[in-house]
Amino acid sequence: MKILVIEDDEKIVNFLKKGLEEETYIVDYCLNGDEGIYLATVNEYDLILLDIMIPVKDGIEVCKTLRKSNINTPIIMLTAKDSIEDKIKGLDIGANDYLAKPFSFSELLARIRVQLRTSYSNQTILKIDDLELNLLTKSAKRAEDNINLTAKEFALLEYLIKNKDKVLSESVISSALSNMDDTNISNIVNVYIYRLRNKIDKPYEKKLIKTMRGLGFKISDD
Amino acid sequence: MTNLSIKKKLLIYNIIIQTIILLLFSFSLYKTLESSSKDKLESTLKVIVLDVVDDIVEHKDKLTKRVFNEEKEYKFKPLYIRLLKIDDTYEVINSTIFPNDIKENINELKNINKNNIVFNYQKDYIISQMKLFLNNQNYVVEVATNFDTINSTLENILYILFFIVPIILIISIIAGYFLIYKSFVPIELMLNNLKNINASDLSKRLESKNMNDEIDLLANEINNLLQRLQLSFEKISQFSSDASHELKTPLTIIRGEIEIALRKDRTTKEYKESFENCLDEILVIQQTIDDLLFLAKEEYEVLEETKEDVYLDEVTNEAYKEMLSFAKLRDIKLLCKIDEPIQIKGHHKLLKIAIKNIIKNAITFSHKNEDVYIKNYSDDAYYIISIEDKGIGISKEDQKKIFEKFFRTDKSRNKESGGTGLGMSIVKKIVKIHKGEIELKSQENKGTCVYFKFLK
User: Fold this and answer.
1) Is B346 helix (H, G, I), strand (E, B) or coil?
2) Do A81 and A150 lie in a common domain?
3) Which of B248, B256, B259 sits opposite A80 (nearest CB)?
4) Pairwise CB contact (< 8 Å): B256 & A31
5) End-of-domain residue from the set A99, A119, A139
């Protein structure tokens, strides 16, 4: 799950990035509205966290522009303005949710989950065959065995399951799993797929992750 | 009476005043008429008495035979005339028909001076009397008439007044009511308009009819007041939204840092980092609160009284020395040139804060390895402190807003200046306390120069 943070205060960006990455999200960030519009337009994000008081173009502008150009990525507004009017204004121009600063990080996570859930299904547990992925506790189970996954591995597995039965190329996977600061080498995808297979497929008879030669990978239970 | 509307009060006052005026008018009219008709009657009687006396004196041998026909002569009715002999008997010598109910007052008759006409009022009659001395005998001539004519005239007048006064009163009250009602219509309209304007919507204005009358003047004044109110309301709400934003940002960081630090077990190094971040933000909150309090205080009078002699060169030098380490941190060379010792009245501490704020900005917005010049000199009218940098400069548009509370240029926001956004407002206030001026010359990407000017 990829999240774009548009916020002008670097210290806020720092803790958001740290906290969200520990929750297995992939985080890109930028410090002004113009850059935010650019990034949201050229990259695929699952969610945007948007501050209202940002330089160059403010959050309201950014939100309007994105919605005009038919980018319907869920937007959660983060702002120090917390009057009812501000909230209504934010929601009316196309934001999906509104959180007033200073916010509780756990609440932000819950709201992020709500937005991400509505974009595919209303479940917090993803299942494929006897493999279970709990998005709330970030834990994985197969046949009642707990499997320990790193943040990146979890994110990869989540992405695969959400795109069940679809063939995903290395470059698609790598763009979904890496932020702009990561070196974008497709080899990294192979490494993660290899590690993931070791953990979820190797001990079991039925293999879920399949390599489609020359095309990429997919996860399926047939 | 106290809690009636002005309209009702005016109406009541109007009724009272009109009534009093009309009653006074009627009363004085009546009295004047009464006294003037009495005077006229008396003077007429006087003439008749004198005439009768002349007549008697002329025919003194035929006192009893003389016929009094003054009534006919003067066309004055009713007229009663008689001649009395003044002795023990008071015998009527000669008389026209004389009413019985006129009482003789013997004592009075005796006391009448000779050749004097006396008027004697009795119930319905007025009697004029004159003494004369004929044939060694005292006589009194009495000419009398009744009040009937006067009374009927006065009665008529009274009836007229009784009838006319209430009519006039009613007409004038109705007219007054309309006048008052009409003159209050625009005020009531204004009231209704004002009721629709409240603190949440000060943008509305009263309509004026461009008649330039008092109502229009009032409406204009109220509109001016609303304008000023609206401006200050906007300023206040802008300020509080800015203030809350400035305080909420560091709080957000502290809360986020702590919550994330607590989510799982971490290394000592990570905990330390979180603590350091929190401490930084707490210092920002503290500074913001101090600055806000300084700006909120309006104690110019106190500051005016406690002014002392300050050496500007000394203050500048101290500010320069205290900022050296900060400049070094940012790889900026700080240069200071002081021409002469300058003395003004003011506050050492506050002036130093102002100069340091400007130096800090100059350093923050300079590129690495550039110089910042601090100069102290004077021209014909002013003592001047100038702080010049070759940094990023300020755009024309931003120069106008630079002294506003919490204003930050987009560049300075991006530059992580670490300030509270209140520095320039504080500088402005300090300069104002010292009755000085502050000037700013800046070109984008060329640099900025700030001048403190204090009158000699």
Assistant:
1) strand
2) no
3) B248
4) no
5) A119
Ramachandran class of B45: left when φ > 0, alpha when ψ lies in -120 to 50, beta otherwise: alpha
| % of chain B residues with pLDDT over 90 | 9
Q: Taking CB atoms and an 8 Å cut-off, how many pairs form between chains A and B?
A: 63
CB atoms < 10 A from the CB of B301, how many? 8
Q: B419-445 pLDDT, tens per residue?
A: 667 788 888 888 888 888 998 888 888
pLDDT of B272 over the 90 cut: yes
Instruction: Name the residue in chain B with its Cα closest to that of A13.
Output: B253
* Domain residue limits at A62: 2-119
Q: What is the pLDDT of residue B257?
A: 93
**Rg of chain B taking only CA atoms, in angstroms:** 52
Greater pLDDT, B109 or B121: B121
Are A32 and B281 a contacting pair at CB < 8 A?
no
pLDDT at residue B214 above 60?
yes
| Contacts with B, A 90-149, CB within 8 Å | 101-106
Q: How far, in Å, are A40, B34, B79 from residue B148 at the CA level? A: 116, 13, 12
Distance from CA of A148 to the nearest CA of B (A): 16
A interface test, pick of B252, B274, B408 with most A CB neighbours within 10 Å: B252
Q: Are residues A41 and A69 in the same domain?
A: yes
- Burial code of B350-362, b = ≥16 C-beta within 10 A, e = fewer? bbbbbbbbbbbbb
pTM of the model: 0.54
Judged by CB atoms closer than 8 Å, whether chains meet at B260 and A80 is answered as no
Question: Do the chains contact at B253 and A18, CB–CB below 8 Å?
Answer: no
Q: What is the domain-level CATH number for residue A59? A: 3.40.50.2300
Which pLDDT band, with edges at 50, 70 and 90, does B414 fall under?
A: very low
Domain count, chain A: 2
